[in-house]
Structures are given as C-alpha cells and as structure tokens.
Amino acid sequence: MVTPFEVEFDENGAIVDYLSGDKLVSTPEERVRQRYLRVLHLEYGYPKDRMRREVTIQRGSSNLIDGAGKPVRADIVIYTTAQAARTNDQGKFFIVVECKAPTEKTGYNQLVSYIYNTSAAGGVWFNDSGADDEVVYYRRLSQPDNSLIPWVGIPRSNETWDSLGRRPKADLIRPKDIKGLLRRCHNKLHGRGTDGEESDLTMDMVRLILAKAMDEERSDPLPAFYCTPEEYGSPEGREAVADRICDLFEEVKRANSDVFSPEDRIGVGTRVIADVVVELQDYQLVSPISDAVEWDIMGHAYEQYTSVHLRRERGQFFTNRIVIDMVVEMCNPDYMDIILDPAGGSGGFLTGAMRYVRSKIVNGQGSATAKARQLDRHRTNLFMVESTKRLVRVAKTAMILNGDGHAGMTPGDSLGEYDAFERSIIARAGRGMPTCILTNPPFAGVGEGRVSHQETLNRFKTGQRWADVNGEYRPTGDLLSEGAPPELLFVERCLDWLAPGGTLGIVLPKSFLDTNTYRPGRELLFRSTRIKAVINLHKDTFQPNTGTRTCVIIAEKLPLGEEAGDYPIFMAISRRVGQNSEGVPVYKHDALNNLTSDIDEDISDILNSYRDFLKNSLVKSQYVFSINASDVDALRRINPQLFLPHLNETVKQIESIDGVSGWTAIPLDQLDPGIKIFKGPRLKSENLIVEGPGSGIEPYYTPSAMLQEKGDSAKWLNVSRADKKQIATINAIRVHKGDIVISRSGTVGRVAIITNKYDGAIVSDDLIRVRTSDEEKRAFLFTYLQSRFAQDQMSRNEYGAIQQHLEPQHIRDILIPWPDDSSRLGDIIEKANMTVRAREELDALNQELSAETASLIDTLIAAAAGNAGTE
Length: 871
Known about the structure:
Layout (H helix, E strand, L loop, with lengths): L14 E2 L6 E2 L3 H16 L7 E6 L1 E2 L2 E2 L9 E7 L2 H6 L5 E6 L5 H13 L5 E7 L4 E9 L5 E4 L27 H13 L7 H20 L11 H4 L2 H21 L14 H11 L11 H18 L11 H11 L7 E3 L6 H15 L5 H12 L2 E5 L2 H14 L6 E3 L11 H7 L6 E4 L14 H4 L6 E6 L2 E8 L6 H12 L5 E7 L9 H10 E8 L13 E8 L10 E6 L13 E3 L5 E5 L3 H12 L9 E5 L16 H12 L6 E5 L8 E3 L10 E2 L6 E5 L1 H5 L6 E5 L5 H10 L6 E4 L7 E3 L8 E2 L3 E5 L3 H10 L3 H9 L11 H5 L2 E5 L6 H45 L1
C-alpha cells in the first residue's frame, strides 16, 4: 500500500494537494512541499487548517519583491490559529518552511527574509532529493540580537519552543514516518564532511540506534540520549552529547560481547552524532512486544534501510519481504516452535517469524496473561547463526526494532561442527532441536563462491561426487575437486539440523530444482522429507541486487522410522512480484486502467492457493497446481515448469496422435536414422580475433545473426592463426545450408534455417543444430519446431538460475507427429520450402540493395571531391 507520507496523484498525473484537494501541476518542487506537509501534519500534529502553501510575504502594506521583480512566496507557513491561516495574518506566523532551495545556505537566506518580515518564531529548510531527506531547523531569537540560529527541532502543535531538548521518556512518541526519519539520519551521517564508506556509515547508524534502544531500556525517567539547544550550539556541548552516546554504546557492547569487540566504536564525529541525536531524541524506538502494528512499521522501515545501504557480500543479499512473509506463513510456526535461521544475514526471516507469531498470539483467544507468557516464550525461541559479525549487529538491531528476541542471534559458521556454536545455540537450538528452519543461504553464483575447504566438504555427503552405483544414486566418497555450492551444503545441513517432524522453508537458486549439480540435494530431500511446496519466484524478486532466478521449497522432515510414501506436492510459478528490475514498486491498475495503491504481486494469491491445497480444496490453474511425488522422474526434477498443466497437456495431445490410424508420435531424434542434433564445442577465440575482414579472415557469427533478417552481428577471426584443436572446433561449429538452428540461451526456442548466405559460416555454439539430409523431414521440422506444440515442449524443459537454457537432449525428446505416408504433408512441406526460397531471395535482394547504395554514396563522394578541386 502507498504510505500516508507519499504524494497523491490523480489519474492524469496531477498532484492532489494535501491541504485543499486541489489539482496541482507535478513539479519536483511541489512534490517536496507535499511530502513535508504530510510530515508536519502526521508527525508534528499541525492541523491542516493552520497551514498554507505558497504564501506571499509582505513588507508593511506591500508585497516583498525578489531581484526579478516577482512577489516572494514562502513554501509553507504554519500559523498560530486557523483564523490567522484563513486571513494570512502575518502577525501570527509560527513557523515558515523553505522546501525548494537547493542548498542549506540559500534556504537559510530565504528563511531570514521571510521570518524577519513576519512574526514567525522559527523555520525549517527541507530538501528531498529522492533518496535522502535533508532537514535543518532554526529558531528566531531576539536577545541579545535579532538572529536566526540552528536549533534541535521544531515544537509539536501543542508545544512551545522551550519544550525542546531533554524530554522525559514518558513524553516520547512513536515515529510515524520512520522511513523518512532513517533517511534523514543517514543523510546527517553523509553530511558534515564525513568520508566513510556507505556500509561503514550504515553500521554507525546501527550503533546509534542500539545506543538509543539501550537508553530506553534503562529505568531512569529522563533519557541520556538527548541534545539540548545549548549543547547543540557549542563544540563543548556537542562533545558532551557524544560522550553520553558513546557511554550508552559501551553498555551495548557489554551486553553483546559475542558480537562487538572491545575496540568497536561509533566512528563519526561529535557534530554528526549530535545531528543524529537531534533527529531521534523525540521518538520512542522500543515498545511493548504486543504493539504488533507499530513494530511492523518500525521493523519494515529498518529492513528497507539496511538493504539499501549495506553492500552485498559473498553471495549475501536481502530477502524480499513479500517472500519472507509467504515462506513464514506456509511454514506456520507457533510460539512453542524453536525457530532457527542458519544463514541469518540481516535477520529478515526471524523478524518475519516474530511478526507472524506475534500476530497469531495478539489476535488469539487467550487471556491477557496467557498472551504475555506466550509472547515471552516466543522471543526466547528465536535463533540465528551468521558468519559475518557486522550482519549479526544489523540483525540484532532489526529484532530490537521488531520487538526484541535478539538474544539468540549469534556469529558462527553454520557449516562447521555443531559443538563449535555459541552455547545458547548448543543448549536450545542444537542438532535435532529446531522445529522450524527458515533461511536464504548464500549462493555460489558464477564467481568463486564454491566451498572447497576439504575439512568442510568432509562433513557432507553433498561435498562428494555422486554416481549411480548398482542401481542406486549415492555418494562415491570422492570429494568434489571443484568445490560445492554453499547452498547445496546448506540444504543438507538444514535437513540434518532440523528436528524430526519439523518444517523447512528455504530460498534456493531455481537451478536447484532440475540440474545435475544439485541432484544430490534433491535426493536427500526425497529421502528425508515430504516436500510440501515448490514455488518458482519471479525473475525480479531480488533485483536490483541480483538477477539470479530463485525458488522456494517447503518441506516437512519425516518422523523417525517413517516412510514418505506417495503424497501431493503444491507447485506454483510467480509472474508478478510488485517491483521491477530496478526495485521500484509496481502498482495495480483498476478496471478503468487507473493506478491504484495496491502492489501488483501474485504471492498473496499463491499463499491463498496453498491454504486451499492444505484443505484439499485447491482449484488448479495454469500456474498453480499440484502433482504427486510419484510423478517425479528418476532425476528428482521438481521444477514446476516441467509440470505446467498447459505444457503437459500439449505433450498429451501429441501423444494421443499415436492412436490415429496412419500416424505415429515419436521423439524427434527417431524421425530420421541419420539426423544429428548437437550444439558443438565452445571455441576459445581470443588469439584469433582481429579488427576487420581481410585475407584468411572469416566472420564468427552470434546466434542473433542467424535469427534476424539483417544478420551482421559478428566478430572477425584470422583462421590462419588457429591451431589444430581450434581448426577442429571451427569445423565442428560451421553451419551448412539446410541446418535448422535453435537458440538455447537467454530467449530460448527461436528457430531459423541456414540459407545459401550462411552456408559454411562459423557460428557460436549457443545455437543447437538439427541436421538431416531428408528434405521432406527437414521442411516439416522447420515448420513444426516453430509451432506452439514444439515450443511448449521446449518451455517445459528450460532451466537456469540467471539465464534460461536448453540442451540438445531436450530437442531430441520433442515429440513430433509423422504419417506413414509423407504425401499427407505435401502442402505443408511445399509451403515450408517456399518460405526458405523466399528467404534466399530476400537475402539476395538485400545484398544487391546494400551494394547499390554503397556504389551511389561512393559516386557522390567522388563528385563532391571533384567539385572541391575545381574551386
């Protein structure tokens, strides 16, 4: 949903004014002003009828004029009364806000001109640059001189300026615009000449928030986390503020000695600390755990903040909150569950679990005493292990801002020995204890992310090479020389760590579901669990951090001695995730195509369908359905794409042709005894690449050159430099007239046929070749492979974590109908051949056209040169 602090637009893109409801032209300046009007109303409590926008400033009885002769207008004015606002009584100005000035200095000068000509007691310079909010507060003093000086804030609607400073803890309020508050604090860290890295600044933000939370935990009625106007106005005062905050952080370190080292400190300077304290001191960040809605807002904002400002490391990235909430609800933990995330990162899954269980308790039927005891038990049942101490600090802060429960968050190596974990993990969440594991482990990706440490690999069956031995697929005892993807080891560790009967919810690369690399992990899943659900996530789910395609698996570990048997598995494919590849939210449109405030995602629908599945009332659709475990093949492939009803219906339809008299349905590679289906070896061409054509130089075409009308996409190779191995590779990947080629990476399944133009050309192995000397079968294949009947069969077998891929075997397995008498296909074959002939004619015409155009331009250039010579 759109938050109350976001600017409202009508269906034509005009701004709906927050004060009057009038339609305004959308400009950057107006959007900034509309944002701050919301802050003044929702955070500070100023009634709308006491505020006006674009107020003309008067000097005496005349309007104040700028250097261009135009009337000077204040962006926002807060009046002392609603009557004063209606009549623009400049003797009853209270606060003036300047939103449009690009710099603080310009904003200050403009505020001086506004305030000194009115009764305003102070002002604000606010600049929203899109990613960050910049804000500076000023108070007008009349003694000893008339001056406008920086201040520690502005009063709330029912307060005076003198109330600012050290408020009693009882007077602190919960922030409503928590996202804006964190943005403003982060901007303070970037300001004042701070030159630290983004991630270091974010960690200082974490330290300051923990210091604030520690202060709120204390029983003292007055806070230590404060900055008075007098302190803010002098270097000595700001030094005193920084000393208090650093003392609070020392308490944080003592309470979390497993996470913070004695040398850990707040790295920013005293002025920056004072700036952040000024922003945070009026607010209460810690509240009773039962305040579910408040915690949800606070925790979500903090998670968004850290995900934006912390850089991804070693395959770690922040899990989309929509996915977290779906996985948690599908696993359905309760307050009695021991919940563990063995790859905790920033704590997203644990905070998601806390939100979910807390909501169940708060909305349950128990007494107030029962609910309090359940909440207390639940927050002591949350555990996390994370290898990066910095992220443990981030996670602890997230848990504090979500309602506590951070004691079980510890640093450690989840792939290490169980007895090496922190004592709290060993005692409460050791091997066989967790009843719910929720995790998004780090992925190997395409870099050097594999685990190759021999001692680690020795702990895992999946650290070994597996093979079919005497009819059984099992580990051979030989360690993987190239290392193992960490996510594969994590699957085995989770299954071993989980209590019998416990539930696992895990995010994995989509390639886990069907590639040979991950087959050992799938085998362990089938041997030790009942797989409850497999969901393919949308490709933008983790953007803009990573383009890796991902999936979710929900599984229930078998009780000791119990066999899995046959059982149903819920499957779904998400096609909308509420954001685009840049991470920008995508909203739904209504029936009239008007933009709404509802996020455009189908995860909620998938979750509802899963609930129906558990009640045996699932209504199957094209992308949400169920299969039986017995439907899974010997390779344990569980990619929902393989089981899509409409794709499998296509296969069934083609198979049914086998029963029609005079027709048979056979795999493509059985159509012709001499047919060849291959992709060729990969050519290492770095030493052969040259700048352009010449003697002994040939083009090396990309797949797109074969698939587009104007196929000029090519490198140039000096084939005369090639060694014997390269010559053999080049000859193997040359295409010949009549070859049918199919794209196998990226946009897979595009089909073309090689004409005279490219006969003998060197073409990338990213095209699968189908080669047959039977002209009739070739013509029909060219047509059939472009039909939905063949395309559906290709789509059914696509695989890949980042790009989609096809292999020659997938083409070989395509079912194709073929008659006993090929004359039945006479008309189709003739038209296919006509298409090829037309293509060749088009190629010839294009070549002629290109030559004639070049000749014309050369003639004109020569004529122009001749004219120049005669002048």
